[in-house]
Amino acid sequence: MKKVILSIAVVSALLAGTNAKAQLIDEQNVTVTMDLQPILQLGMEGSQNIDFVFDQISEYVGGITQYGATALSVSSTVSWDLYAAAFSSAAAGGNLLWDNQVSYGDGNDANAVTTLPLTLLELHQNRANPDGNAGTGTDDDYFTAFQTSTTSMGMNNVYATSTPYVRPASGAKYIAGGNASADFVAGGTYLVENGAGTSVGANSNYYYTIDYRIVPGLPAVFPRATSSASNGGNNTTSAALNASTTSLYARPGVYTANVKYVLVEN
Amino acid sequence: MISHSINKNFFITMLFLVFLMVQSVITFSQDCSTTKVYPTTNQCDWIRSRIVDVENPNIGNATPGTYTVNLVFDSFSKYRSGITINVGTFLKLNMVDDTAAAKTGTCYWKLYMSIDDLGWGAGATTDEWNNPTTYGAGTTAPKPKIEDLKIKVYNSCSTPTQNGNWQNFTNDGDFLPIIDNAGTAFNGVVACTGGQPNSVGSYLGPDYNELTFAIDYKLIPTLGWTPGYYMLKIKYCLAEK
After folding, report:
1. Domain assignments of chain A as residue spans, ordered by start
2. Do A27 and B32 touch (CB under 8 A)?
């Protein structure tokens, strides 16, 4: 027992000596974390309800154009694309048509139809798509000026779809950017310059104003609705409405549609 | 004969246990060491001399009591202007002579910080943050570098090597001195007389302004960085010179 106690005492003495002769090192740690969240902000100025009231012959013939009815501003921390998609309840069911809310008249004429294609709506943007062609040619966008009669069909018809949150396919119109991964606008904001030589505010690639036009024609067959050309943006339409061989025309009434502006990470 | 053999074996066992305990102590003391900064003297009392406390004052996104500074970029304005955490970390030192040691001088020390990417990169990625997860679809965009995190160390007596200046690490394992006083020992800790005091004293007494260190953090992101969650560890090391 004495030897056990002696051993413990020896060990304790050794430990005490060890403590006194240990060299000082102390350490404290701080963890720094950084949470980079993707920020995509799309601002829209202008009325959310844009009305086209055709109550004069001149308006049927010449159409109604609403200039600058919508202004879009973008701030993004990641590369982005921006597109417009025409949508409706009918489109959700697979028919890319306007929703008919009210029909006027007695409806006895079988040639008066309510199947109006979404693509009869035309858009025009104030500046060209900065990068939407993957380097292969003309950028697919709504920059072409509104045309008359049946000239340059398909250049301004809105992209219509049953799946507005699925980015348009290659060749479809974008306001900015495109379907290909190489087609995009770099992260930035309309609020400040985004590099040497760039513009700010309404003059930058982060700000777009949108004009709208509808030309019913007489009779109201919407002659500019089309899905033919690739620049039509893969639109589909009820072609019979504007075929010269038919007697169909738009039945008077109230029609509604929804245009979604979608800002998406590249 | 049997009794003598048992006693000898017991004594050998105890010696072995002592040896193991001493080795474990040395191992613990080497957490902050490299061949660059390994202490050469043992004049400081290693129990009572230490970084007494590391506070994370609850300013901005700092989380008190967990030694974590969080930089959350969740708005465009934060991306453009960055986030600065003032006094995100606050160090307090207590330095005591070891009266039991056979001294040729007195206790003097150095204080420095090093960066640890928590095992993220080897080879070409030693300059990146640890990135356990990314957000969104894109993963080819550039990622933040260790050098993007700026650190400023200061106290009211302006004792740190780069007092009040923003500094940054570059690669995993880099060291930056706070108190080094290279080539000069025994710069006594007295009330704001200049230089880099590196001898005995306590933040509790009149040496508060020399033995406390406030640390600010700042980071201004670059638009286009891959969104995600990133981590680094900063080690604040106190070592005897």
Report:
1. 40-265
2. yes
